[in-house]
User: What shape does this take?
Amino acid sequence: MPVATPTDILEQRSRRDVRHERLFRWLLKGCALIVLAALLGAAGATLWGGRDAFATFGWHFLVSSSWDPGNDVYGALVPVYGTIVTSFIALLIAVPISFGIALYLSEVAPTWLRTPVASAIELLAGIPSIIYGMWGLFVFAPFFANHIKPWLTNNLGNKPDDGKLSWVAEHVPFVGKLFGSDYPFGASILVAGIVLAIMVIPFISSVMREVFQTVPTRLKESAYALGSSTWEVSWDIVLPYTRSAVIGGIFLGLGRALGETMAVTFVLGNAMQLSASLLDPGTSIASTIANQFSEASGLQKSSLMALAFLLFVVTFIVLLIARLMLRRLASKEGR
Amino acid sequence: MLTLNKNPIRFVAVAALVVASTFGVSAQATDITGAGSSFVYPVMSKWSAAYAEKTGNHLNYQSVGSGAGIAQIKEGTIDFGASDAPMKAEDLQKFGLGQFPIVVGGIVPVVNIAGVRADQIKLDGTTLADIFLGKISNWNDPKIAALNAGLSLPAGKITVVHRSDGSGTSFNFTNYLSKVNPTWASQVKFGTAVEWPTGVGGKGNEGVSQYVRQIKGSIGYVEYAYAVKNKLAWVDLKNASGNFMKPSADAFAAAAATADWASAKDFNLIMTNAPGAQAWPITATTWMIMYKTPKNANNSKVAFDFFKFALEHGQQSASELDYVPLPNALVSRIEAYWASEFKH
Assistant: This one.
């Protein structure tokens, strides 16, 4: 009866290891490929579904502001504009606030407060968007219409109630148009932007807080030892150290804002019209699709699919810009 | 658990009994599936509960929207589709389908003007269309004043509220505006969604009700039940014979009774602007769409039995939900259509 020598056992083991290693790699590759396949599949399916719309309207689909099911003429300009502007407003509000929350929690707040507030933020991130939408429609939009909007239209807008233009509306370009509106209700591009901001703050701030905590204490303490203030440490040490992760968090929030459907549908006013004013109702890509898909057929359905494809394109372009920004920042590093 | 484990045979026996008694009833019963219009969903669910109690057969109705309902019946994945717009004769022919109405409901314009309650303000079709076109944009417009002698309306901008989602309510409302206003007919046309010349969009009847309640000086349109439920101030409308009508079950029924069903093949008739003296002008129905030669004969038979039950015994529950049962003459016309057109 042959007896296995120690070298035999070792050889067997290493062969098994190699086999396992190979299997594991294939498994990992498979996981990554699933994501890629799902992305390409979804983009391809929407492009294929929207082929009739692209073939019928061509480039006109991108620049036309008409969405007219009665006459079967469709253009994507209004929804695309609404999507980009509401998301931009959301980031404009959410980024500074998230930055403040994250800094407070990682640098300033007493230790006993940090964990409860951090969990509260994570809880906020888990609230379904329909609840934000209902809150926006029933609570925030009426409040905005009664208390905030009159102030904005009278002091900044070009259509004040009493007809007298304020100094700002007269002398600062564009502001008058941005805040001029004679619609007497809340649901509008600005309200949608604000509701979106509240929705993305938890995402951005929790990412920021996580990465701020990774900054080595020794770096911060050295700066404090040299007499820096908390602001100087945050701006010159913490932020540069975590820059790429912070931008990543911001774009995670932007991604959610661009694709948000239900909450926006409730508070955007759903009007297919192009208006310079932020206080007028508008529409977004996702809410147009949600509103019209169930009853659409033929060219209208195809146009909605084409809109879905455009949402992919818009998101892709935004991510591309983020990458380029990161690369430029990286090349400046160390100077 | 411990006691059960001690005696596994008894446990299995009990489990088998439980399973048998759960499925025993439905062994004879048939489950049928329908999909489409959300307009009829409330009354469908009420009817199907009553029908299940009586016969043991279950109806699974998916309120997915008329367009999706038509698409699904064309693919043959369901036993019947339900649509707020009738299918065209050539489409029915092409797919071997038949259609018939099942219940009637009314759509009412609602306003939010300080001091104006339900039934106080009167409008006619042309004026209503001009408001929704944005041509009339102030409540003190002379055209509105001419229809409302004795009612002083405050000067105030009119804000139009329409549906943001594609819907049968919009289909019937825009169809009415097209019938009474040539500008609307040529410019906007009618459909489940249109390019609204002005105003804001609320999602669903609930969304429109909410916007009308919030916006001073607004006008919108909702199904009658929502106007009642939300205590909105509805508008009296001038009908095709020149009478100003209050929205009511009787007025909806009058529209269904006076519509010209006799000359409408496959019930392809949208009954807005019905001719009757007492008819409410924006009355709507939902069509049930089925295969004339069904793939699953047994299911189809049960579906017809269900519709027969709904037409003959479901009237009370329909009125409770502010729908209107079909008039008797129309019911016998539908039953004759079943007998002549469908194989079951």
